[in-house]
Amino acid sequence: MAKKLWGGRFDKKTDPLVEEFTSSISYDKKLACFDIKGSIAHAKMLGKCKIITKKESAILVKGLESIGKKIGKVKLNSKAEDIHTAIANLLRSKVGKVADKLHTARSRNDQVVLDVKMYTKDAIDNLICLITSLQKAIIKFANKNSKIIIPAYTHLQVAQCVLLSHHLLAYVEMLARDKERLSDTKKRTDFMPLGSCALSGTGLHIDREYVKNNLGFSHLT
Which candidate, 2, 62, 71, places its Cα nearest to that of 35? Predict the structure, then answer.
């Protein structure tokens, strides 16, 4: 049975309808690989800073890597509420109580924000690649049809005659602006949050720069 993160003060079990309504695992499972990557970097940092032993760090990393290889093949427990809890439960069943040490100097708050930022950066990179491919296809089509003339409209009325190729190339420029906006969004997203913990950091001597570099971020929050 999945271990709950909340509800310890309740006298009765949560109603199944409430659990179904509050569960997010059906859609946040797309964060799985990023959650694992972030946890691996965090486990390595904890070992490097001697907050946990090197042996414990190695056990956590090995367990997470094993889960990462199977995450798309195993059925996730819907009662785990979200992907972060599901992975934590899988890790605990694989390596035992040492799994709980992974939450040292890390809150669910900065963990989730990290996953979303990593997912967003990856999605932006994929989108830019797709847009670039679309631009190349449009340019290729425009070159093949460089002499075709079409009517151009304004206020739903024919206004001028233009080359089809020129009309198509206008979309290439629009898409270029979209790529610029996405690149700007990535720059604004490229701040590594781990170490912020629940709100204002931790008293433990962690190495945020190490985690930042390990995960490919440019800046720290």
Answer: 71
Taking the chain (221 residues) in runs of 10, the rounded mean pLDDT of each run is 57 72 79 97 98 98 96 74 90 96 95 97 98 99 96 93 96 98 98 92 95 97 93
Label the pairing between strands 219-220 and 191-192: parallel
Structure tokens at 37: 């990557």
* DSSP H or E segment with residue 219: strand 219-220
Q: Compute the chain's Rg from CA coordinates.
A: 24
Is 3.40.140.10 the CATH number for 16-104?
no
Distance, CA of 80 to CA of 168 (rounded, Å): 49
User: How far is the C-alpha of 211 from the C-alpha of 200, rounded, in Å?
Assistant: 18
For 15, half-sphere exposure in the C-beta direction (CA atoms, 13 angstrom radius) is 3
This prediction has a pTM of 0.86
- Encoded amino acid at 151, one letter: P
**Sign, Cα dihedral of 97, 102, 103, 105:** positive
H or E segment to which residue 161 belongs: strand 157-163
Spell 33-67 as b/e; 16+ CB within 10 A means b. bbbbbbbbbbbbbbbbeebbeeebbebbbebbeeb
